[in-house]
Amino acid sequence: xxxxxxxxxxxxxxxxxxxxxxxxxxxxxxxxxxxxxxxxxxxxxxxxxxxxxxxxxxxxxxxxxxxxxxxxxxxxxxxxxxxxxxxxxxxxxxxxxxxxxxxxxxxxxxxxxxxxxxxxxxxxxxxxxxxxxxxxxxxxxxxxxxxxxxxxxxxxxxxxxxxxxxxxxxxxxxxxxxxxxxxxxxxxxxxxxxxxxxxxxxxxxxxxxxxxxxxxxxxxxxxxxxxxxxxxxxxxxxxxxxxxxxxxxxxxxxxxxxxxxxxxxxxxxxxxxxxxxxxxxxxxxxxxxxxxxxxxxxxxxxxxxxxxxxxxxxxxxxxxxxxxxxxxxxxxxxxxxxxxxxxxxxxxxxxxxxxxxxxxxxxxxxxxxxxxxxxxxxxxxxxxxxxxxxxxxxxxxxxxxxxxxxxxxxxxxxxxxxxxxxxxxxxxxxxxxxxxxxxxxxxxxxxxxxxxxxxxxxxxxxxxxxxxxxxxxxxxxxxxxxxxxxxxxxxxxxxxxxxxxxxxxxxxxxxxxxxxxx
Amino acid sequence: xxxxxxxxxxxxxxxxxxxxxxxxxxxxxxxxxxxxxxxxxxxxxxxxxxxxxxxxxxxxxxxxxxxxxxxxxxxxxxxxxxxxxxxxxxxxxxxxxxxxxxxxxxxxxxxxxxxxxxxxxxxxxxxxxxxxxxxxxxxxxxxxxxxxxxxxxxxxxxxxxxxxxxxxxxxxxxxxxxxxxxxxxxxxxxxxxxxxxxxxxxxxxxxxxxxxxxxxxxxxxxxxxxxxxxxxxxxxxxxxxxxxxxxxxxxxxxxxxxxxxxxxxxxxxxxxxxxxxxxxxxxxxxxxxxxxxxxxxxxxxxxxxxxxxxxxxxxxxxxxxxxxxxxxxxxxxxxxxxxxxxxxxxxxxxxxxxxxxxxxx
Lengths: 518, 361
Prior knowledge:
- The complex is a heterodimer of chains A (518) and B (361).
- Chain A has 18 helices and 20 strands.
- Chain A has 518 residues and is of the alpha/beta class.
- In chain A, the strands form 4 sheets. Chain A has a 6-stranded mixed sheet with strand order 6-7-8-3-9-10, sandwiched between helices. In chain A, strands 16-17-18-13-19-20 form a 6-stranded mixed sheet, with helices on both faces.
- In chain A, β17, α16 and β18 form a beta-alpha-beta unit.
- The longest helix of chain A is centred in the middle third of the chain and has 16 residues.
- Chain B has 361 residues and is mainly α.
- Chain B contains 13 helices and 2 strands, in the order ααααααββααααααα.
- A two-stranded antiparallel sheet of chain B has the order 1-2.
- In chain B, α4 packs antiparallel against α5, α5 crosses α6 and α5 packs antiparallel against α10.
- The N and C termini of chain B lie far apart (56 Å).
- Classes of the chains: A alpha/beta (518), B mainly alpha (361).
């Protein structure tokens, strides 16, 4: 793999010189980065979240303007005003969020915007189909062109995104964390596909923060940290820890240490939970499981297999489900959200939309739920809020959870993602409930914050709290869970001991390849 | 907060400058006109009190809009709630005759509940049928307008008068005057204080504030958004209803006259918007707009600049304050990006220098 690159003459395809991007008001996202991409290589850019990888690529792609610096393509200076210009010049980007029309077929999505037309602008679908079919065959993409996007898997959608770019004759592909939405098997498949693309003389820029992937795939690796380029290395005899050190600037503990769980009484029980949504789709099918105090139960599954509905049922955001949910032996099915919140803490997966009010102050964000539950926050009368106590609670969260803040009255939006998440985790953990529901607690955070939050989760468990952990990150689930449930198409298809299985096996369950009695 | 004061100040100054130019172009004497504008609204006790009396309903309709908008309830029905509040106190004030210490609190209660009731219809439609209050409150404005017009030109008309209006309400319901300063002003200030207190020191005010910024966050946090929404609508309606009532109880006429609502409802919405839905800001802008509207009369009298000219001034103020709030933000961002860039570049020069030295080794 590495040698293949050496056979090729080192032609500088893209050269970025001293690029600076400042997000207003004064966030230095990319700090004078120099980067050279050679023709025909797979060049990975890695770094923690917020290291500037995506920003750098978006600047190259013409999605965002940059403030200073130069970009050259084949020696010619370029500055794309829009992605359209970039595509015309042969650069394409696959984003984390797919940009496809769900109700259109694969073919229609691929040719959208560049439809071949015959006389009088009449769409020549046959011609289009021939070309797309040829591409699918050539690159071994294995796609059904007539399938609607809404009916195909996430991995297939990603293939459609790539196909879209190939159809536009792009020869430089930028992939922004393409593996985040894939299972281990699908990742393997993606990698072999990328290697095939490389063999067909495409140049690939691969953005990731997962070290294993980068080491497996790339010819060259560029490490970014805090907006700066740390180094560019040829992928020869590199080790994971070397790379990790470059990435975070210090050794990272990859596994959070934890002792054996000492489970106590049952805290959560779910009996035969079934939910059919308003489109008559059965989203949850007879879910049964329990969680005891002092254990972390992980829930693995590809996104969209019922996790969202399960969380909403437990939270009370969905109330027309069948079955029973009990916390501490109390049925909560008919309780209001507030009454449920007295029994459980909840960390939503969406920090900005559900976990906080971005415009409001740190105090306003810290006292949510406490203001009704925690008697210490009540002023002289029940209806009043004690401003002093609110401030104090906020201060406690900041101290205990190491939150870096510009000031206690600042809006929470002025904090970095990791610090915002610490505030939210702190708020929920300080509710002191016996049950905690964590939905993607560390998604999109930097390594330092992930480590901190994972440690806090273990500490919470050790204090005798039952935790349900939903995560798309298998490493996290393996690190933290005492038991691991796997959900597939609304069913719990397996319960495994993470110490006894490997990720591949869990991946098979997640994909439905194993454990489904059909 | 500081930024808000600066942008408000800039907005007002620019508006006055623009007004200056417009008047000059029209051949009026701008300096003299402005002098009269202030002298008839501020420079004497009578002028000042007239301004404060004028401010009372504006404070209330402004608060009504501000508290609704800030909580995410788009109540645009100040006009209707104002009219229903005014009609409520007129009806009760005509049939009930009690001594003032009992009568006035009774009528205030009637005004609050009438306004709340009328806003409550929109809230009910929202909760029950998911109809947007933004539309329903607007529609209800027309209903209230025609309904009250019908009442004052038919069942409740004062036969002795030549235009539609009701008879005067009973004497016990008339607000006292304190040397020209009407009780209505104190009532409006008291309402402002109450709302300020609710907004900043109560759990419910906190929940309203959060609901206005991120309703889902509030809901997941355990707040009962539906209940809070209804409460906000009722409070908002009550404030607008009270504004209508003080035009009957505190006005000159002490009766429901056709056109009693003037433009108080929409001015309230405008005030809330310039004040960015802040409670204190709403109070201050209400005073400012009252001052313009009061001074306009004097200006027309002395310099023959038509009193409608203050509408131009008002509009420019709104545009500039709102625009400068937004553009100040953009400008601030642009400046800080440039400053940051300069810093980054100067570091670059230093580090590039190091590199070239190293290269020669």
